[in-house]
Design brief:
By secondary structure, this protein is mainly beta. It has helices at residues 3-27, 34-54, and strands at residues 85-86, 112-114, 117-128, 134-144, 150-160, 166-173, 175-176, 179-180, 185-194, 203-212, 221-229, 235-242, 249-259, 265-276, 281-287, 302-309. Mean pLDDT is 78; it is low at 61-111.
Length: 314
C-alpha cells in the first residue's frame, strides 16, 4: 500500500482520537489537558490532511486502475557539495532558443496546434531510481506561432503506453516561462512518479492552456550562470539574477532548460526567489527534482535561462 496513503490515514485516525479524548476530558472537567489535545489534533490534521491533499492519487482506486500517482511536490533544492566541476553550455539571458536541429529531432507524435501556438516537441522518459521508484519525466515544447504575446496558465496532458493504453492523466501542469512573444517557446514540464511499469515507449498528449497575454513579457537579467554536478552526479545551476525593472517582484522564477547537442530539451532546473526589489541583484541556485539518472553534465550541450516575476492573468 502507498506510503503517503498510510501516513494520511494515520494522521486522520489521530484526529479522530484527539477529538474523542477532548470531549471525554471536557466532560470530566479536566480542562487543563484540553489545550494539549487541541495541539495534537492540529498536528494530526496537518499530517493526515496534508499527505492526502498533496498526494491524492495515493488513495487506492477500486477496480485496479492504473492511474498515475501524486503530483510532484514543489521542487526542493537537491544541490550537493559546492566542489562540483564547472559546467558546459551557453548562458542566455533573454530566453533565446537554440536553433540547432529543431527540424531533425524526434517527437512522440505529430505537432499539435491551437490558437496562436504549436506543440513542436513532446517526450516522456520513464526510469526507475536506485530504490525502485518508477519516475516519469514529461516535456512538451510550445511555440508562439501568432503575432501577439501569449499567457500560458497550467495545462494538462494524457500519458499512453506503447499500446495506446491510457496510463495517467495529469492536470495543473505549469509552463515555463508564463509569457512568450511571437517565435518564443515555453515548456510544460513535470517530474513525477508512476505506480506501475510502462509497456513500450510512453507517449505524451499535451493540452496547453494559452490565451492572448494581458500582462507584459518581463525577463530579468541573468549572469554568471554555470552548471556543475556534485559527487553523486546531481546537477545544479549557480548564477545571478537582476531585477532590471522599476517594479519589485514578490516571487521570481528562475528556470534553466537543459538541451543536448541537437537542441532538444532534456531536462529542467528551477528555483524561486522570494522578494526581488527593483534594481536588486542576487545569487541563485537552481536544481532539478528528479532528472533521469542517465542525464549527466556531459549530456548538456547548452541551456536557456529564464528569470521572470510571477504574474497572474484572469
Amino acid at each position: 500500500m502507498n506510503l503517503f496513503f498510510i501516513l494520511g490515514c494515520v494522521g486522520l485516525a489521530g484526529c479522530l482520537i484527539a477529538i474523542l479524548l477532548t470531549l471525554l476530558f471536557h466532560a470530566m472537567g479536566r480542562s487543563k489537558i484540553i489545550p494539549l489535545l487541541v495541539y495534537l489534533l492540529s498536528f494530526a490534521l496537518f499530517i493526515g490532511g496534508g499527505f492526502l491533499y498533496a498526494h491524492p492519487d495515493a488513495v487506492p482506486v477500486l477496480g485496479g486502475s492504473d492511474e498515475q500517482q501524486a503530483d510532484a511536490p514543489a521542487e526542493p533544492d537537491k544541490a550537493g557539495d559546492e566542489d562540483g566541476q564547472a559546467g558546459c553550455g551557453e548562458e542566455q539571458t533573454g530566453g533565446e532558443e537554440s536553433q540547432t536541429g529543431d527540424e531533425d529531432r524526434p517527437q512522440d507524435e505529430a505537432a499539435a496546434s491551437g490558437e496562436g501556438y504549436a506543440v513542436t516537441y513532446t517526450n516522456a522518459e520513464i526510469f526507475t531510481d536506485s530504490i525502485g521508484t518508477i519516475w516519469c519525466q514529461v516535456i512538451a515544447e510550445i511555440e508562439n506561432t501568432g503575432d501577439t504575446d501569449l499567457y500560458l496558465s497550467s495545462g494538462s496532458y494524457d500519458l499512453e503506453d506503447g499500446n495506446g493504453k491510457l496510463i495517467a492523466s495529469k492536470s495543473l501542469v505549469p509552463a515555463y516561462p508564463q509569457v512568450i512573444s511571437p517565435g518564443e517557446k515555453a515548456y510544460m514540464y513535470e517530474e513525477t512518479t508512476l505506480d506501475n511499469e510502462v509497456s513500450g515507449k510512453a507517449t505524451v498528449i499535451p493540452r496547453p492552456s494559452a490565451a492572448p497575454a494581458s500582462v507584459a513579457n518581463i525577463r530579468f537579467i541573468t549572469t554568471d550562470v554555470e552548471l556543475s554536478s556534485d559527487r553523486y552526479g546531481s546537477l545544479k545551476a549557480l548564477g545571478r539574477v537582476e531585477n532590471n525593472t522599476g517594479e519589485d517582484s514578490e516571487l521570481t522564477y528562475v528556470v534553466v532548460i537543459l538541451k543536448n547537442g541537437e537542441g532538444t530539451p532534456i531536462g529542467q532546473m528551477s528555483t524561486i526567489i522570494n522578494g526581488l526589489a527593483a534594481g536588486e541583484k542576487v545569487g541563485f541556485q537552481a536544481s532539478a527534482f528528479s532528472l533521469p539518472e542517465d542525464i549527466t553534465l556531459d549530456d548538456v550541450a547548452g541551456y536557456d535561462v529564464y528569470a521572470y516575476p510571477l504574474q497572474m492573468q484572469f
